[in-house]
């Protein structure tokens, strides 16, 4: 979902994306947490995500340190999180696992600047799709850190490259809770977090006991705080001659990431309905939102979800929507985009 560190043009954009991920903040504090929060000023359990903005006044209370990483970039991190990170790093070095910080805190003002630049350069639609909305990235908190790997003295910073080391990430993830960190964007939880799996994005919560509970239960921070009812999604990829299994999985991730912003809704199932949806008429319809055709193929998924108990305008309250349709277009690079929904 967010690319880190593509140097060149993509760098700015991707960096932004990374920053934009934020989850909401600040609930579920017990008495002792509140004590801590008072002392340090911020609520280390705060939830910042696509639906929950950075709590008011956060940036006034935030205390940070800035360090230089192995590739020479400055990285700003919340004070306690940085101390904990250093301990984590030391702990990992004992096992010959070497990491560094790719990016951590991004201010809301920086995010706005990026959004403005992209809007000027590429238009508002593209900017909105590409850049996280200012205020709604967990990176605003200073508590979200993106790691990169150092393997045989080589910096491994590209997402695709980092994904090639699952066994290294496993070792890293096993140590997180000991230092008050959790993994934030879990596999198959895109419909809850709004982000694809990111083994490198860790979050400091300043509570080893809770971190251990969260990490061992495999629940998201959203689910653990009770912000959402965390359900699994039953996905049926059917049969396709047109798309590979990986392509269909990527399409489902797109749908799920988008779904995470459907406030109060619970996704239950998704199903690829088969290659017969890829007709010239449907392709033309999907492309009709663009001046020039962008998609080369279309795919239809149907699914069921439950709407919130209280009516929110968009949905009938407390209703199981069945056979809801998601249409996705694939461009010539093989990237998916949601072209539309129907019911
Ligand atoms: Zn991140």
Key attributes of the depicted protein:
binds zinc ion, 23% strand, globular, Muramoyl-pentapeptide Carboxypeptidase, domain 2, 13 helices, 343 residues
Number of helices: 13
From the helix content, strand content and strand pairing, which structural class follows?
alpha+beta
Ligands bound here? zinc ion
* Shape by Cα distribution: globular
- The mean pLDDT is 89
Please write the string of helix (H) and strand (E) elements: HHHEEHEHHEEHHEHEHHEHEHEEE
Helical percent range? 25-40%
CATH architecture of the largest domain: 2-Layer Sandwich
For the secondary structure, the number of strands is 12
Please write the CATH class name of the largest domain. Answer: Alpha Beta
Report how far the terminal alpha carbons are from each other.
Answer: 27 Å
* Low-pLDDT stretches: 1-32
Query: How many structural domains?
Result: 2
CATH fold label of the largest domain: Muramoyl-pentapeptide Carboxypeptidase, domain 2
Per DSSP, what share of the residues sits in E-state strands of 2 or more residues? 15-25%
Cα radius of gyration in angstroms: 20 Å
Largest beta sheet, briefly? 5 strands, antiparallel
């Amino acid at each position: 979902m967010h690319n880190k560190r593509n140097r060149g043009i993509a760098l700015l954009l991707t960096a932004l994306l990374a920053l934009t991920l934020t989850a909401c903040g600040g609930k579920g504090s017990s008495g002792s947490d509140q004590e801590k929060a008072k002392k340090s000023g911020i609520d280390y359990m705060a939830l910042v995500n696509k639906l929950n903005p950075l709590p008011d006044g956060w940036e006034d209370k935030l205390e940070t340190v800035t360090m230089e990483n192995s590739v020479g970039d400055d990285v700003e991190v919340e004070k306690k999180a940085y101390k904990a990170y250093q301990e984590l790093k030391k702990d990992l070095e004992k096992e010959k696992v070497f990491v560094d910080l790719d990016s951590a805190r991004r201010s809301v003002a920086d995010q706005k600047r990026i959004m403005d630049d992209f809007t000027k350069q590429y238009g508002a639609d593209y900017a909105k799709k590409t850049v996280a909305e200012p205020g709604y990235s967990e990176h605003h908190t200073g508590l979200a850190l993106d790691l990169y790997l150092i393997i045989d003295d080589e910096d491994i910073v590209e997402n695709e490259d980092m994904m090639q080391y699952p066994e290294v990430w496993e070792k890293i993830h096993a140590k997180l809770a000991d230092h008050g960190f959790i993994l934030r964007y879990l596999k198959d939880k895109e419909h809850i977090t709004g982000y694809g799996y990111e083994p490198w994005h860790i979050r400091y919560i300043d509570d080893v006991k809770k971190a251990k509970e969260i990490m061992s239960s495999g629940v998201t921070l959203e689910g653990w705080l009770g912000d959402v009812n965390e359900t699994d999604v039953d996905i049926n990829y059917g049969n396709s001659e047109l798309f590979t299994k990986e392509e269909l999985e990527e399409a489902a991730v797109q749908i799920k990431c988008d779904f995470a912003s459907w406030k109060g809704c619970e996704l239950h199932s998704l199903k690829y309905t088969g290659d017969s949806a890829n007709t010239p008429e449907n392709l033309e319809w999907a492309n009709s939102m663009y001046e020039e055709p962008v998609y080369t193929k279309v795919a239809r998924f149907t699914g069921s979800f439950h709407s919130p108990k209280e009516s929110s305008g968009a949905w009938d309250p407390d209703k199981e929507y069945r056979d809801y349709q998601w249409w996705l277009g694939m461009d010539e690079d093989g990237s998916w985009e949601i072209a539309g929904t129907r019911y």
